[in-house]
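Hi everyone, sorry if this is the wrong subforum. Our group has a chain we'd like a structural model of before ordering constructs, and none of us has done structure prediction before. Sequence below.
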Amino acid sequence: MDTGAGRWRVGGQYPMTHQAKISVGLVDDDAPYRAYVGTLLESGGRYALTAQAGSVEEALEWPAKAKPALLLLDVALPGVQGPAAVTRFLAKWPGVGIVMLTGRDADEPVLESIRLGAVGYLLKGAGSAAIIEGLDDAVAGGAPMSPTIARRVLTLLREPTAGPRNDPKALGLLTEREREVLALVAEGDADKEICGKLGITRSTVKNHLTAIYDKWRVRSRTQAAVRFVKVTGK
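Answer:
Right subforum, don't worry. Here is the predicted structure as tokens:
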């Protein structure tokens, strides 16, 4: 995923240079909020707000070179919104990391948007540190969302006919510790909870998840968890 200054791909791939900034697109009809996010991203040094729009229709007119690595998308916009917007953006830019913006922690359109390919969501009322942490999680291949939503997403995606079950070959690709981490992810545990239960650091959790993504060729925490549920038959 080309940002113009380096090569990125949401889902575990890291930059070729630490000086490169990750391009972020923002679609939100609240102009003051767009200004706030832009200032926040620029002040952090790691991200750059390279494109913004007040509607999905406007954003879909961005030129191909404006493709961001991450796209912050308000779930409730005038016109095209929510799940329909996710589908259109992924059709235009396959692989873009879409992070939904919502004012409520249990919004059904958010769940459907994640099912259709969004990597997670952020609460619009979250503090600046939480926003940056959520973006960092998305870049590292994680899924920024609360444990409650994570559990609901996993329940939503558990379809008995989708993919092989009881697949020891897939599990054999993972180390014992990676399986332990993934089992907790599949239960909806956040990184902090996993750290406490396994007695490891957050960076170690992220390293294990990155290894899992590479071995299983998945691009997000949710996809890895759903596959774990299927291959273990649980």
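For your construct planning: The two ends are 35 Å apart (CA to CA). The first helix runs from residue 31 to 44.
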